[in-house]
Structure formats: C-alpha cells, structure tokens
Amino acid sequence: MSLGEFLLVAVLALPAVGAALVAVTPGERVARLVGTAVAALTLVGAVLLVFGDHGWFGYGPAPAVQPWHQLDLPWVPGLDLRFHLGVDGISWPLVVLTALLTLLCCGYTLWRVPTGGSGRALVALLLVVEVGILGTFLALDLVLFFAFFEVVLLPMYAIIAGWGGADRRRAARKFALYTLLGSVLLLVGVYVVVAAAGTADIVALTGGAGLSRGTQLAAFTLLGLAFAVKAPLWPLHSWLPDAHTQAPTVGSVILAGVLLKMGTYGLIRVAVGVAPEGARWAAPVLGVLAVAAILIGSLVCLAQDELKRLIAYSSVGHMGFVLLGVATLTATGIQAALIGNIAHGVITGLLFFLAGAVKDRTHTGALAELSGLRETAPRLAGLLGFAAVASLGLPGLAGFWGEAFAVFAAVRRGGSLWITLAVLAAVGGALTAAYFLRLLRQVTHGRPSPAVGRLAPGLAGAELTAWAPLVLLALAVGLAPTLVLGLATGPVGALVGVLQ
Fold first, then answer.
1. pLDDT at 428 (0 to 100)
2. How far is CA 462 from CA 262, 353, 394, 458, in A?
3. What is the predicted pLDDT for the residue at 451?
C-alpha cells in the first residue's frame, strides 16, 4: 500500500475508530480528550494528502478526473461495486476544511458542553458525522458516494435533537424529512445512471460515458434536486434556518461549515460531471433559482430579529452565489463556486461560534436585546465585526472572491438572461452588506442593554484557540486565493473540457 492509499484509509478510519474509542473510554473529560486527539490526527492525515506526484498542471480532457491518490478495491464483486476513493484539487480543500472544523468543535467541547446530554456522546457523534462528510468528498464510486452521503443523517439528527434549543425536536424532524427526500431522489438518480451505464465508477462516468440525452436529462433532474436540498437552494431551503437556530454551537458550525458543501460538491462532481448534457439544459433554471436565493435570503435577513436565524438565512444567500457560479458551467464560475465553498465554511463557521458565545453569555439571541456589545465586551464585538465584514465580501478577505467571480462569470457567459442574473446578484451583494452592517449597528453600537451590560470583557482561552484558525484562514484565503484556486485549476479545466 502506497502512502497516498494509506492516508485515504486513515482519514476515514481514524474518526470511525475514534468514535468507538470515545464511547468506551471511562470518564467524560478523558473521552472528549481522546476524541479531540483523534480529530487532530485526522487533520494531519488530511493535510498530508496534498503531497505526492499528482501533477497539478498535468490534466487533460480525458479522463476528466485524475486523482492525486486513489484506492480501488473490490467491494461487492457480484454487483461490480468497488471501494474506490480518491482526492484531487476539487475535493482536497473540502477534506481539510472538514477535518479542521471537526477538530475545533471537538476541542470546543473540552471547555463547554451544551445542555441536553453527555459530552462523550456529542464528540462521538461529531466524529461519525466527519466520517460521512469525508467519505462523500473522497468517494469515486456512485454507490459508495450515496452510502457516505447517508451516514451523516442520523448523527446530525441526534446532535440537533439532543443538544439543541427549546424547539430542537421539531427542527431535527424537519431536517431529517428534507434530507430523506433528497436521499430518495439521489438513490433513484444513482440507479438511473448505473443501470444505463453499467458502471458506478465516477472517473469512467465523468463526461457522460455514452449516456443518451434523455438519460442525462433525467439523471441531472434527480441528482440536481437531491443536491439542491442539501445545498440548500431556494425554495428547498426551509429546513436550514430552523436547524441552524436550534442546533448547539458545534452543530451549527458543522452544518454551515461543511454539511452544506456536500450538496454543492455533489452538484459539481456528480450531477454536472456525470450528466453534462443535463447540466447544459438545466443551467438557466439553476441560475434563476440561485439568484432568487441570493435576493430572498438577503431580504429576509434585513427583516430578521434573531442572531442565529439571521446568520442561517445569510447562508441561503451565500450558497446562492456558489450555485450561480456552478450554473454558468464555465471555468471561472466553477472556480468561484469552489472558493466560495471554502470561504463560506470558514467565515460562517466563525460567525456561528461567535453567535453561540453571545447567546451563552446573554441567554438571548434577540437583536433588540443585544445592543452595546463593544462597550462591555470589545474583543467579542471586534471579532464579530471582522466576521461580518468578511461575510459581506470585503476585498482582502475570503468572502470577496467567490461572490465577485460568480457575478463576473455570469457576465462573461453573456446573453440577456445571464447579464440580468449578474446584475441582480450584484444587487444581492449590496443587500448582504446592508444586513450585516445593520446587524453590527444593532448589536455592537448604542447603550448596553441589560443582557449585555453584565458581560465580562475577557474571552476564554478555549474560545480564542477555536476561533484563531478561522480568522487566519479568512485572511489567508482573502489575500492569497491561489491557496484554493491553484489546486483546482487543472481538474476544473478538465471538467469544463467535457462540458463543451
């Protein structure tokens, strides 16, 4: 077994074994320490996947997927299913982001465990969720992709229902029902593709693999709807605000940071890659719905009066920019989607950490009861201001590139429809700035409210440890976007080549 194959197995096996170890380790705090250590080792393995003879600039039009490292073993020989894993410049940044956020969330539980259950169980569930998300990003077999896609459902339901807010059970049920709807559509779409092509191998299927136009249209419709639920795309987004609002802090961070990316990654890797004719046919509809998500999410945020719910609806708008980039089916648009994914994961993860810290201290999320934060807790207010301006797309921070280049890609696509969508998306970007500036004015300025007036000015060391990597990443990706885009240039160019 080569080093790359070993690392592919390790980044999946470590959190799986770690979840079992956490469950049997005596002592609450010791169990959480074990889970955090396992998450740290998983992050090391994920980072090391970038090394190797993977020929960053050696991509060609066929095959469109050329993994840096891959592991291909028989899984169900009678059905010609294989345990096929691989990583390239499209999936690797998401693998590292998943491992990083899981580590930060597990480490956060060493300092604070939300009410509702044991910290040991919460950490074990976080590690199981990590297995499902990492497997989704690494799978190069459609059936294996579906299996990992489903692993996430039950543990995330348990996290929301077990450690969430007062209305957690209803929010968890809504999350589960919407996700199950997407799962059924995904399963049918996978069956349509595999039955028609005779293979489940994503490498062989990318570019259409001889699938008829009718099959590709049907497959893209089913797969696109399945991933739209997870992304989420308007009007299939209504599970998201409830789930984010009721989930504990670490659950909201994982939901926003990487779980939504399973939908956008699946759309790029599977739906667009496997059914390019279907993608070309549906691109205008996807673009219209993406811009609708941007505008509606922004307008709802302008009227929102609850902190976590506002951040949740902002995700609908930000993911709209990601989906607009995908809809253009251009190299610029898909690159914008990829960096938008990473930026949203980093910045919104930080926002939910900060929102959780505010709610834990003040015991309220109502914006009207949170005024004057900079007077009593200036460090917390400063970090909230940084995260907000990063999320609204300030140049020099990570949020700028995905949104700016999604609009630019739509303009370059040309035609009255795409120019109109670009203009409306730009208006949505202005509305994004408006609602985040409104948020800062209401929360950080003014006379301290009774809930804010009793806050201590300091921050816990555990909080700074969890937040610092996200602050640094938001700066690093904003100042040097090639950290993400440079890795994806080859695979994105190859994918666009099969779309022509």
1. 92
2. 28, 12, 28, 12
3. 79
Rounded Cα gap, residues 234 and 319, in angstroms: 10
H or E segment and range at residue 73: strand 69-76
Contact 117, 26 (CB under 8 A): no
Q: Could you report the per-residue pLDDT of 35-73, keeping only the tens digit for each? A: 999 999 999 999 998 886 554 434 444 566 678 888 888
- The pLDDT, as a whole number, for residue 200 is 85
Per-residue pLDDT of 160-204, as tens digits, reads: 888 877 788 888 888 888 888 888 999 999 999 988 888 888 888
CA atoms within 13 A on the CB side of 92: 30
Angle at which helices 142-151 and 168-197 cross, to 10°: 170
CA–CA distance, 132 with 139 (Å, rounded to integer) = 10
Helix axes 168-197, 239-246, angle to 10 degrees: 130
Cα separation, 300 vs 302, in Å, equals 5
Q: What is the pLDDT of residue 243?
A: 86
Contact partners, residue 323, CB within 8 Å, separation at least 6:
231, 233, 264, 267, 286, 289, 290, 293, 337
What is the 8-class DSSP label of residue 266? Answer: H
Cα torsion angle, 131, 136, 140, 144, sign: positive
Structure token pair of residue 321: 């920019």
Q: At residue 70, what are phi and psi to the nearest 5 degrees?
A: -150, 155
Closest CA to 348 of 329, 321, 376: 321
Q: Please give the model's pTM, rounded to 2 decimal places.
A: 0.91
Please tell me the predicted confidence (pLDDT) of residue 211.
Answer: 83
The CA-CA-CA angle for residues 10, 93, 277, to 5°, reads 110
Residue from 91, 90, 99, 37 nearest 473 by CA: 99
- Rounded Cα distance between 332 and 339, Å, is 11
Q: Residue 74 — φ and ψ, nearest 5°?
A: -60, 140
The structure tokens 């959780």 sit at 356
DSSP 210-250: T--HHHHHHHHHHHHHHHHHHTTPTTS-THHHHHHHHS-HH
Task: Write out the H or E segment, with its range, that includes residue 83.
Answer: strand 81-87
372 by DSSP, 3-state: which? coil
- Positions of the chain with pLDDT under 70: 1, 52-65, 500
Q: What pLDDT is stored for residue 288 in this prediction?
A: 93
CA 116 to chain centre: 26
Produce one character per residue of 283-311: b if its CB has 16 or more CB atoms within 10 Å, e if not: beebbbbbbbbbbbbbbbbeebebbbbbb
Instruction: Name which of 235, 248, 264, 83 is nearest 162 in CA terms.
Output: 248
State the pLDDT at residue 56. Answer: 40
